Each structure stands twice: as structure tokens, then as C-alpha cells.
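WP5 quarterly update. Target: FtsX-like permease family protein. Source organism: Hymenobacter oligotrophus. Length: 415 aa.
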Amino acid sequence: MHFLENIREAFRSIQSNLLRTVLTALIVSIGIMSLVGILTAIDAMKYSLNATFSSLGANSFDIQAKGYSNRFRRGGVRGKTYPPISYLQAQQYKAQLGDEGRVGISAFIAGAAKVKAGSKETNPNTQVVAGDENYLLNQNYNLASGRSFSQQELENGVSVAVIGAEVREKLFGSNSVNLALGKYVYMLGRRFLVVGTLDRSGSSMGGGGADRIVLIPLEAGNQMPRQQALTYDIKTAVLQPENLPFAMDQARGIMRAVRHDRLGQEESFEMESSDSLANKLDELSGSLKIGGFLVGFITLLGASIALMNIMMVSVTERTREIGIRKALGATALQIRQQFLIEAIVICVLGGALGIVLGVSMGNAVSLFVGEGAFLVPWLWMMLGLLICVTVGLASGYYPASKAAKLDPIESLRYE
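C-alpha cells (predicted):
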């Protein structure tokens, strides 16, 4: 028996035991599905989140006061906190950076506000943000109707507002893109005139994005009653993404001077770009891939044990057939090849089904995190096929070796 004849014989054996082959292939397919599915889901979610980070501005970076993430004790030592960025410091930074970047200053006013218009009101989940003329541009928020704030409104803190799509629909109806303009809304004890509405943006993070936001002029936010001083956030965008590292270094120097950070002292502020968020996502996805690979490996280990058991049963059932083949001149190597090929074919058939199911499952899972294009993970598909062949070899080697070592005389006597 030559090699091609062994392959044909393996397929004939599989066809004669079709039900057993299907059940065995399903066991392998479940293992491959779990492995490929988990890895595909991680890649698809990463793709979706990277798209979200890009929409937030791949050519921008944020500056915030340091200290809010290290307030808890570490090793018995309480982390140092720094004063928030003041309005004066934010304005000084904006003036000194000049034309090197487009600086937007904003302040978080409220995160669980109710907005009313007549007899209707929103749920208490609306964010109220005060921003300057560059806020909408830097955040990549698009106007659906109306306009942004005029320079006079920004300077005088006029009570005008730009509202998100969900706020608009809740207060003025689903077809109120233009109807909301010129109407008044009430929030935080003050009345605001709606001068613009935002396009629906959604959010892969589940927070509503720009849909649950009410934007007011920065000076109007400074005039709002509050129990403590506002904390100002600064977002800087550059026109050319390749200039981002230079702009961040320049901004760091300006901000240290504005915040009066002495030489040798750590910075009292944090700078974070979408690139750094993507790097953190890469680290997190790497850990998730390791965990997913371990889960898939354990599942495949169970599948390989089941396949080995079935191949052992197959060798026992075909003992007499093996004796006949040896009596007709088949060598031990040819008998071993026959059973190894049979095990590999079963694994590849099951693996092909598992890959299709895994890719579909991974992309379906990613839809719960965010919207993204259908991802075809060629690397994981090739890895899945390679693992199938490896599992077939590992599971079929011992049964094939046992079959090759059978004595032809004893085998012919087997009933």
C-alpha cells in the first residue's frame, strides 16, 4: 500500500463509520470553535475599540490634574494628590501654546442632571459640560442642526446650549432636529436657549457618547452655582498626526511652567493620547488572548483524549482487517500511516467546522461591545488548522503504533 492508497483507505473507513466520525469531528470542532471564537472575539473587540479611539482623535491628547487615580494607599503610604487645573492655568496654557495646536478647554458640570422642556424631562443621566469654541471640533462632535456658540456668547457666558440627540428626542420628539432650535430647556436651576443639536453618535463604551450631553459656554459654566471649584480638562489637537510627539513634549514644558512644577519634581498633571489608550488596550488584549488560548487548549485536550479513545476502539474493531492487510504484505509503517491519516482527516473535518463556527461566534460577541466590520482572522484560522493536524498526530500515534505492532497470525484469529 502506497501513501495515496492509505489516504483513500482512511476515507473509506471514515465513510463506513460515518456516525462515529461525525460525533468525533464534533468534539474536535467544539474545541477549535472555543479557541478560534475567543481569539476572534478579542481581535474584533480590539478593532472596534481602536476605531472608537480613532474617532476621539488620533492626533490629540488630554491634560488632566494628577492625583485622582492614586488617592488610595499603596504599601501603607497615601498617594500624593495635586490641586486641580484652574481656569487661569488652562487659559495660560492655551495662550502660550499658540498655533502649535488647537486647544479646547472644558469643565464637567454635572453627570446625572435632569433636563426639562415644558412638561417633559429626561432621565437623570444627562451630562452637562461647559466648553469653549474648540470643544466640538476636538471631540469630533458634528452638528445636526443649528450652530455652535458665537464669540460674544462665549465671552459673556450667555445661557445657550447645544444638546445631544437623545436629549432632543426625549424632550421634543424623534423628528425634532430643527424643532428644538429656539426652544428653552431648564436644568440645574437655570434656563438655556437651544441653539444647536448634535448628530447621533452612540457609544461602544455604553455611556451614551454625545447623545446624552448638554454643552454650554465655558463662561456660563463658571457662573453656575457649585459647592466646590471646577476641574478643567484640556484637549489639544494637532493638524498633522506625525507632529503629535513634538507637540506633547512642548505642551509638557508649558504645563510644568504654568503649574509651577519645580525642576526634578514629578509632574502635577497627566497627559494621555489616544495612542497611549491603544497601547493599554494592546496590553489588555494580550492578557485576554493568553487566557482565551488556555481555555481553548483545555477544551482541545479533552477533544484529543476523546479522539484517542475512539481510535483505540477502531483499532480493536479492525484487528482482523489489520491481520489480513499484513498477511497481504502491508508493512508496519503503512498500517501506522493509515490510522494516523484517518485521525488527521477527522480532526481537519472537525476543525474546519469549528473555525467557521468560531469566526461567526467571535464576530457576534464583538457586536455587544461596539460596531465594527466583520473580521476574518486568517492567523487564528491557520493556527486552528495547524492545531487540528497536531491533535490528530498526537491522538492517533499511540493507536496507530498499537495497530502496527499487532501480530498478523493473532490478528487473523481475532473474532
